Amino acid sequence: MKTDGKIQKDVMDELKWEPILNATEIGVAVSNGVVTLSGYVDTFHKKSAAENAAWRVKGVTAVAEELEVRLPFDARLTDVEVAEKVVHTIKWHTAIPDENIKIKVTDGWVTLEGEVHWNFQKESVFNAIRTLSGVKGVSNYIVVKPMVDTTLVKDNIRKALERNADLEAANITVETMGNKVILKGTAHSWKERRAVETAVWSAPGVVAIDDQLVIA
After folding, report:
1. What is the pTM of this model?
2. What pLDDT sits at residue 214?
3. Ordered domains of the chain (ranges, CATH)
4. Measuring CA to CA, which residue among 110, 46, 106, 41 is closest to residue 71?
5. Strands 109-116 and 101-106, bridge-based pairing
6. Residues of the chain with pLDDT under 50
7. DSSP string, the chain
8. pLDDT of res. 57
9. Using one digit for the tens of pLDDT, what is the confidence trace for 148-163?
10. CA–CA distance from 79 to each of 73, 86, 104 (Å)?
11. CA distance 149 to 179
């Protein structure tokens, strides 16, 4: 098991291997495997790189990242200017659904909110803006909500109804609108209708059901 002293040395060595970092600007302290990074860097990109470098070292159990971003005078931008750069970057990134992303900038710190269908899209937003000049930090509160798989929903309904010999799925149609499932057709009883709804809720990505089934 590594001692704290050995972990500290390894983290410092790892920081030296990062070409964009000046390791002499970053203080490293270790206690029970918890690494504390302190000091000042001039971009958020460097701050993120230092944290990633610390996590790469074997024996590190946690990273307390206390680095402060101090932008050079000629790199300082107003929040409006930073917001415009973020909006422009996201708009032209093909992997990011920019219409689903909300952006707020306060004293150079960018807060991201909204919904995407895939985790790589959430990561793409962060990676696209972390290197922008003027950005001091990023809070990524984007939520990953997968799109409803209509085929999976139908399969769930079929299996649920097949478990009940007296139920029939042939008269039920499934439509989707974003993450909402619309059920149409006829059910033989309230029991069958409830079984269909339960089956739909078990499918990933479903956030709402519009049950238009008629009891026949």
Report:
1. 0.64
2. 85
3. 4-70 (3.30.1340.30), 74-144 (3.30.1340.30), 150-215 (3.30.300.130)
4. 41
5. antiparallel
6. none
7. ---HHHHHHHHHHHHHH-TT--GGGEEEEEETTEEEEEEEESSHHHHHHHHHHHHTSTT--EEEEEEEE---GGG---HHHHHHHHHHHHHT-TTS-GGGEEEEEETTEEEEEEEESSHHHHHHHHHHHTTSTT--EEEE--EE-PPP-HHHHHHHHHHHHHTSTT---TTEEEEEETTEEEEEEEESSHHHHHHHHHHHHTSTT--EEEE--EE-
8. 94
9. 777 777 777 777 666 6
10. 15, 10, 9
11. 9
Q: Which two tokens stand for residue 97?
A: 């659904």
Q: Return the pLDDT at 115.
A: 87
Name residue 27's beta-bridge partners. 38
The answer to whether the CB of 123 falls within 8 A of the CB of 140 is no
